[in-house]
Amino acid sequence: MFNVTSTSDAINSGSREISTLIGGSIKPNALMIIEGEAKTGKSVMCQHLAFSALLSPANSVAYYTMYRNFNDLITQMSMLSLPVQHYCVTDRLRIQSLHSFVVRGNVAQTAQNLIDSVKNLPNRFNVVVVDAVTPFMVRMNPTAKLDLFQAFREQCNDNRSVVLVTSTHVLEKSTAGRVFAMSDYYLQITMDETVYKTEGVDNRAIRVLKIHKLRGVEIHSADIIKFEIKPKTGIQILPFVKVRV
Predict the structure, then answer these.
(1) Which domain holds residue 48?
(2) CATH no. for residue 133?
(3) Nearest residue to 71 via CA among 38, 93, 55
């Protein structure tokens, strides 16, 4: 989805529609937040992002996943025609289960374990994807949540870009505003409430991608992209429903 380089070059998107939305590229050392409720396609977006980054030999990706077994993520990406086995073998893709950081009854230590893991990554891992931080924040107070996001904000240096996935319901209004301020890019994915019929059956799950922040600048009147998630394809943009709001 987004090609990431380990130099000061811009980060270009492999999707023309999404590339247009993000102004053609993502600046280096960026913090991107992908927000939405369950089953809106946040994980698939991250998987496309990671795969596109790996297509450049300059990049290495650290991917933190809710899957307990890293092979489950490899299988999932393969089903979307995103083969990553080779990158795992060559250690250009390092997959870590978020469950391995959990300390029962101690959310603060759990969060710190995750942060320490990212801090200790070799510098060549210039792309970090955390899908998702939601489970770490369920029992956190607002201050602790902000500290977690701030810790990742601080990782966006030395040519490292960080993508964090979060659910809408875990961010209080005041917390959401502060997180938004920390981010360079803020993407929101929702389900389209419009009814679409396929051969007379209402079975199309349409997602809506909206960018609220671009290169550190809040977007008050933004384009949206609607897409579906297809087996062997992943994200399939629906150009006929792209509108300006």
Answers:
(1) 2-244
(2) 3.40.50.300
(3) 93
Q: Residue 71's Cα: distance from chain center in Å?
A: 19
How many angstroms separate the CA atoms of 206 and 22, rounded? 21
Question: Residue 227: what pLDDT?
Answer: 86
**pLDDT confidence of residue 178:** 95
pLDDT tens, 93-120?
A: 999 999 999 999 899 999 999 999 999 9
Phi, psi (degrees; rounded to nearest 5) at 224: -130, 155
Total structural domains within the chain: 1
The pLDDT assigned to 181 comes to 95
H-type alpha helices, 90-191: 107-119, 134-137, 142-153, 173-182
Q: Indicate the angle between helix axes 70-79 and 42-54, nearest 10 degrees.
A: 90
